[in-house]
Specification:
By secondary structure, the chain is mostly beta strands. The chain has one domain. The chain is 4% helix and 37% strand. The protein contains one helix and ten strands. The chain has a four-stranded antiparallel beta sheet, with no helix packed on it. It has a four-stranded mixed beta sheet with strand order 5-2-9-8, with no helix packed on it. The radius of gyration is 23 Å and the shape is elongated.
Length: 156
């Protein structure tokens, strides 16, 4: 038997204003935070998918400023997954054998939510723009559903 357990916190992301209010021509301004971005943890999965964080806690940065939201200061949903496998070898004489293998990916069929909708920036960080129509909404999962594989190998 073998197995792999993966547990991690969510990926960090940044709320960008989506406007060049700093007037630098770079268009990397962050938003201004005007309230608490966190929503209660005891919400249903559907509520978290529809609105992962409090989108009304952010506004466009003031003209001539870069915004006060820190880079990668927010965190997406966590992730856990367990993959396991079983291998058994059966001898057939002295020099031959049959190997049976069974692999289970995401054995508990756990649905891990993806990060809130946004565009991947050139630096590899997740940036969300206030101008995005899907701001705060989770539109994908972070893993596949359960996958089961069976294999049989004749070794000679």
């Amino acid at each position: 038997m073998n197995g792999i357990a993966t547990v991690r916190t969510g990926f960090p992301f940044t709320i960008r204003s989506g406007r060049d209010n700093s007037l630098t021509g770079i268009n990397q301004d962050t938003a201004d935070q005007i309230g608490d971005w966190q929503l209660p943890d005891d919400r249903t999965r559907g509520e978290k998918i529809a609105r992962y964080f409090n989108t009304s806690a952010f506004t466009f940065n003031a003209l001539g400023t870069f915004g006060n939201v820190g880079i990668n200061s927010l965190e997406g949903p966590g992730f856990w997954n367990i993959d396991t496998g079983v291998t058994r070898s059966f001898a057939i004489g002295e020099s031959k054998r049959i190997e049976f293998r069974s692999l289970f990916y995401n054995i508990f069929n756990n649905v891990n939510l993806g990060s809130p909708a946004g565009a991947q920036s050139a630096q590899g960080t997740l940036d969300l723009a206030l101008t995005s129509p899907t701001l705060g909404r989770i539109t994908a999962t972070a893993n596949d559903a359960r996958i089961i594989e069976f294999g049989l190998k004749f070794v000679f």
